[in-house]
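Objective 1b: paired records.
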Amino acid sequence: MSDSLAQQLSTDLAEAASRTAPSLLLLRGRRRRAASGTVIDSQSFLVSDHLLDTDDEVRARTSEGEVTARVVGGDAGTDLALLQGEAGGLTPVTFSA
């Protein structure tokens, strides 16, 4: 890999990380097991289902702060859970073509 290609890749990855950081979450439930999640709208996010109990009160940390959330539902088949934050203002992830 040429130096210029490696530098461009590094720049592109840094920009992608900077753009998505506000939409990524670190979560901890009562079991104290960590999970990551992605904000899908100003109040909701998706995480790995197997890490949370339905009655868990979850603390979610973003690069912009912390929010308390509750598990709204989950699907063991896809290993996804939907959580809803008690306060809005989260930054949803955006995808571009």
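Objective 1b, second protein:
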Amino acid sequence: MGTANEKVIEWSGSLSIEQAESLKEELSNALAENKNVVLNLSKVEDVDTTTIQLILAAQKEAKKRGGSFKVDKSISESTAKFLNLLNLPIQETENSAM
């Protein structure tokens, strides 16, 4: 669920360009309202490059605002491989330990 200073976003399914606008809006709102954001992808089946671009942009925006943006390590093997290929940091969070 996150801490008082942290917003957890949970995505699921197959994420592609078709969902990009709603995903972008959700990330933008979370970053505007919270200093620290955690993205939980544990229920995501696969992602495309558009989704990865959104994640990279969110990380950059969080850093610019003096906050943090983490991808929870509780993800599928295929998603982990894709994120690792792009050198995206996958971190253990409070939610990963549960």
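The mean pLDDT is 85. The radius of gyration is 12 Å.
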